[in-house]
Batch of 4 targets.
Target 1
Amino acid sequence: MCDEEEVVISVTTTLHARVVSHGDMRQRLQVLAALVAITPASAQEPAMTETQERVVSYFRRYADGMAFSGTVLVAKSGQVLLREAHGATDVATGKLIAIDTRFRLGQLSEAFTAAAIFLMIQQGKLALGDPLSKYISGFARGDSITIRALLTRDSRLPNVSDVPAFIADPARPHSLPEVIAWLRAGPYPMHRTLASYTFSSPDYTVLAGVIERVSGQPYAAYLRDHVFAPLGMTNTGEDADSIAHPPPPAVQHYPMGPYVIEHAPPVAWTTFTGSASLFSTVDDLYRFDRALRSGALLSRASVDEMFATRRGRSAGAWVVSDSGAQRYMTINTRAPGVEAGIERYPDDDVCVILLTNVFSSLSHSTADDLAAVALGHDRISPAPQARVVVPADKLAPYLGRYQLGTDFVTGRTIVEVSRTPTGIALVGEPFAWPAHLIPLSDSTFLDRLYGGIVSFTRAPGGQVTGFEWKRSRMYVAARMPPG
């Protein structure tokens, strides 16, 4: 990397701890926060800029109010505004997350698969228009599926998470050739389970096979030698890379209450080679961002081609928006115990990276807000300034079934407000796990799973008639009669 693109930050660490018990849980949750403050290399620390103060203030309210577990980095114009670590790598041990803790990347892994493909294209080793059959045989439509179609996820290959062998034991690892054989033999009926929430794109798994065929190296080794090592990304890799011998990443968890987490179902991530198999840190991902901007990895022409959109899709796994006030590109993912996201605003040189070991889309909306604050916009954190306790008798009237309208993401859908050991939660078909509700008042709640605001409505006589659920838009649910 060029000297001006080097990320060199010294840090000081302040620790504080909070212990939370959860009924008869076998494990005690220790919510341990490590606040890592940016300290310049000079002897005297300069005052924060107004933008930096606003970014830090927004995030710390969110982290404290939501028991955030993970790491975050926000940068603008090459200056790191926020770089912090909070929480525990494992609720069973209470070991603190550090700024260099490795987190599973889920779908964010695809950004590196795409970069490797464009590196090979840049070197003349393959072309976007090449058919899949040129590199991997045996696919029914291998002559018509191109490298570009795989990059834009247009192959219509079956999902790995629907394969019976994976469903039978998600924790059992499978080799890349074995998984590609599954994809050749598909299609498979869709099978919705907790494990199926592991995001997997068969297109990028097949692209990993193309990388191995063209390079003659295992996927993880090729990325290590040609992407990670040249960029100084020493904390990024894949479990299958036996040379690197990295310490295990943070253990995955999912919410079991407003402020409580448990271990998520185990998944063998190398089964998703090329699509969801990598781990990394916020610092390494920021090095990747700098490399994309500086041309340290790919030429400007390759970067432009990778982010170019066709029919709303880019050829590099990223979601790209060229409309609105700011052009941006993002990848985010949710999977069992995984939340990872990177947002880039290239015209303003803003980058937001957020990694967690807890399944919750709330992290995505927080990343959006952090980017907005860094860009100079006002945002108010939905996290409560202090924990609100609602007595059980005031929660009881909310229990029951509700029906969402046809405008909901899954159409007309019935959900239930159920009691949990720590409060209430939304449960039903749309949810991988219960959406535990964090009280903001007696009648308004923040749902921990998606980050929406749930406000219960009442008739003039006081009876609960439904709720309004504000997410990216407002959804209205009507109370259903008992029975």
Note: The domain at 392-479 is CATH 2.40.128 (Lipocalin).
Target 2
Amino acid sequence: MNRTLVAIDPGAKGGIAIFHGHKDISLHNLETDLDELYAQLWIPAAVKVMVEDVGYHRAGNHAQSSATFARHCGHIDMALTAHDLDFAKVKPEVWMRNALGAGRPRNKTERKIWIKKRVQAMFPQLKVTLQTADALGILVYLAQIQGVDFKSLDTRY
């Protein structure tokens, strides 16, 4: 089955991972400018989009930073809705546990590095960065629940 899947990790340092059917996977830094974000999320071939369910205030975070992040998450939801794209949300702990397995560190910096190493090992042909690693992990989870097998992926890209 040839289907396009999109995974989004929101935030100023977020990313997008796109599985283009059985052709390849592309990784992109997420735009933060509204017009650029709207244009970036115009993916007419997307059959399923998954967005990390974040954007809430967490104790210890600065209120202004939380509000800015929450607005950015809302902008993503708005753009996807305006483009009439079917999307779902997934909690970080759910996709990490199912796509990457146990053993994730509690410390955020260590966890980000751990995620990058795990997904890079799964896709050695891709140039995974800290900014795109979470999106790729979310894509792995989305592929699992959609029944998409990456083993047939053309790794020339």
Note: The CA atoms of residues 52 and 92 lie 6 Å apart.
Target 3
Amino acid sequence: MYYRGSWCPICRAWLQDWLNVENFEEQLRDAGGTFLIVSSQTQQEVDDALDRWGLNLPQMMGIGDPNNEIALLLRKDYSLNVAISGAPGPYKTRGYTYPHGMAQPACLIANKRGKVLYSWATVPKMRNLMGAIARPPAMGIWNYAMIAMKADQTMAKPRGKSLRYMISSFRSRKK
């Protein structure tokens, strides 16, 4: 799940909406899933925001990705076109500087084999306040992904590095 930054109240509400999905924590745990929350901000800024926002379930992991490596990987290997405002950078907004641009809101849910069950990325335009609004609700995303997982339907097949590889490499950086 991509969000703009710690300064964005709409991002905070969108992420906190996941805590309202009925049985989300149990279903995620039972599926062996990890909820990645990624921003183009630094790791410290991400950690501080998630603590402030109460997003601290055991299966949640915040990732600061100021170089937008994950966004570029998702574009290349998962056909998820994460918009990056101000790329190649620097991009300044709300008192924050993003050295390589600011990744816009996006969501990808994949199964254990790396098959995409659900994907969405904002396309910043004036009608959606440059990507700030018109995001799909967490309950709708989760229900769609659970149906797709049960039916083993996929929207795209992964190419290149797997999500597991990506997650493990960012976990090792965090330590």
Note: The chain has six helices and eight strands.
Target 4
Amino acid sequence: MIESQPQFLQGIYPFLGVGYEKLGPLSDKLVYTVPADKRTQLIYLRAGNSCAEMVCVVLMRDGIPMRYFPIGAKGAVHVPLAVVEDIFPETRLEVFFAAPPGAEGSLVIDVGLHLPLHAGGAQKVLMAHLTEARREALIACGLPPLSPQTIVDPDQLRAELETIRRSGYALSDDEAGFGGASVGAAVRDFSGEVVAALAVAGPAGRVRRRLPMFRDLVLEGASGLSQRLGWVAPAQHSIPDSKETH
């Protein structure tokens, strides 16, 4: 049975610091092992610190620190983790912390994990613009069916990704199993590299009825964001209409 819902590591947990150099698990509830037939991605981390000292929250991957997040005294952070990096099957993810000796308080933790790149409008946009080697590595890991509409045939997915690169946007109709649909478009930086995706999503029937409008809005929004990042669209060379001679 393939899960089709995002995963979350979250809660409010007391802590007692023993030193910044001594990492330790915050709670045995803040552990997630990726199932053997799935991949996942880290989407965001939100955390709040109630004590009067800086603490550090650490995401661990198979016992090795993956990302460090310092949180100021009585502070909070919200960090998007929009890195195109799959967490592979059977990987163990944990939330650790470090705090000064004697520092005591509570940490509010919310870590969001999401679905692999081959399902969903924004996800497919990002996958389409990876290097060929990276795309093929992801395909080689398998394409689990999150719903009956998920593309699971490698050649069909390759063709879909080529269409996305040409058009600049991607459509998804219940591919992720939520009963929803989405339209995603590429956001580029000053160098022209795709660094993010902008998407609109909603109930599948509503998105289908208004698909041209949503597509145009997403393309316009992604273009505006890209321009704010310094991207300049290539000049469009129009071909004049031929005139008949009599």
Note: Residues 211-228 form the longest helix (18 residues).
